[in-house]
Amino acid sequence: MDAYNLTTVTQFILIGLSDLPEVRYPLFVAFAIIYQITVLGNGAILLAIGAEKKLQTPMYYFLANLSLLDIFCPSATVPKMLQNLLTEENSISLVGCALQLYFLVALAGTEVFLLAVMAYDRYVAICFPLRYSLIMTKVRCGQLISGTWAAGFLNSLLHTVSTFSLSFCKSNRVNQYYCDIPPVVALSCSSTYMAEMLVLVVGGILGVSAFLTTLISYVYIISTILKIQSVEGKRKAFSTCASHLLVVCLFYGTTIFTYIRPSSSKHSPARDRLISMLYGVITPMLNPMIYSLRNTEVKRVLKRVLCGRVCFQKV
Question: What mean pLDDT, rounded, does the chain reach?
C-alpha cells in the first residue's frame, strides 16, 4: 500500500455534481427554488392542520407527520448540496458525513413506515367506517406515529454504526452529492460483507413489510369501493384515499425509477446521479400540492389562514 492508502480518511469529497460545472449556477437556482417551495408548501399544510380543529383527526395527524418528514428529509441533503454548488468546496467531515447519512436513512425509512400506517388508516376508514373511531383512537394514533419514527431512527442507527465501523483508508471521493450507504461503503478498505448483508436483510425485511402492508391495504380498499352500489358512494369513498394513493404511487414510482433505471451510456455519470436524486427533492415538493389540490377541507383552511378572513369570504 502506498502512503496515501495508509492514511486514515478524516473527510470525504462529494463528487455527485462536480463534473457538471457548466450548469452549476442554474442548478443552484433551480434547487434553491424547489427547496423553498417544499418548505413553504409543507409548512402551509402544518399551519392549516394546527389552525383548524376539524383537521385534528388521525388522518391529518399522519399528514402532519408526512409534511414534517418532507421538510426534514431534503433538509438533510439539499443545503449542503447548494453550498457545494455555490462554493465548489465539496468536502464534508467524517462526522458530518455520518450525521448526514444517519438522518437521511432515518427520515426516508420513517416515511416508508408512515405511508404504510396511513394506508392502514384509510383501510380502517373505508372497510370499517362504523368502527373507525373505536379502532383509530388518539392513543392508537400516537402509538403508530411514535412507532414509525422509532423504527426509522433505530433502523438508521444500526446501519450508520455498521457503515462507519468500517475502515476508510483508500479514496475519499463519494460518488454522490450526499453521504449514502452504498457510495460510502464502497470506499472502505476492510471487509464490507456484514454491512452489505445488514442493508440487504434488515432493510429488505422492513422495506418489503411496509410495502406489502401498503399494497394489501389498498387491495382491500379498492375491493370494498367496487362493492359499493351507488356512483356517489364510490366517489366519496375513493376521495378519502385518493390523495394518499397518489403520494404512495409517486414515492414508490420515483424510488423504483431511481434504483432500477439503468445508467445511461450517452451521458456523464453526473447526469445520471442528477436524475437519480430528483425523487429526494421533487416528491417532498409535490406532496403538499397533491393534498391541497385534492382535499377541499385543506384548501378551505389554507385560503382562510393564508388570505385572511376577508379574502376567504370573497372566495
Answer: 84
Would you say how long the chain is, in residues?
315
Task: List residues bridging with 92 in a β-sheet.
Answer: 12
Confidence of residue 1 (pLDDT cuts 50, 70, 90): very low
Closest by CA to 221, choosing from 238, 208, 209, is 238
Which parts of the chain fold into alpha helices (H)?
Answer: 24-51, 58-75, 78-87, 94-127, 132-135, 138-164, 181-185, 193-198, 204-227, 231-239, 242-260, 269-276, 278-294, 296-314
CA distances to 148, 216, 283 from 15, in Å: 32, 40, 23
pLDDT tens digits for range 12-39: 998 877 667 778 888 899 899 999 999 9
Phi and psi based region of residue 88 (left: phi greater than 0; alpha: psi -120 to 50; beta: remaining): left
Cell of 16: 455527485
Model confidence band, residue 287 (pLDDT cutoffs 50, 70, 90) = confident
Q: What is the residue type of 211?
A: F
Tell me how far apart the alpha carbons of residues 217 and 127 are, in angstroms, rounded to a whole number.
Answer: 10
Residue 261 gets which letter from DSSP?
S
Helix (H) or strand (E) holding 149: helix 138-164
**Cα angle 125, 282, 164; round to 5:** 95
For 178-210, write each residue's pLDDT tens digit: 898 888 998 988 888 888 898 888 888 988 899
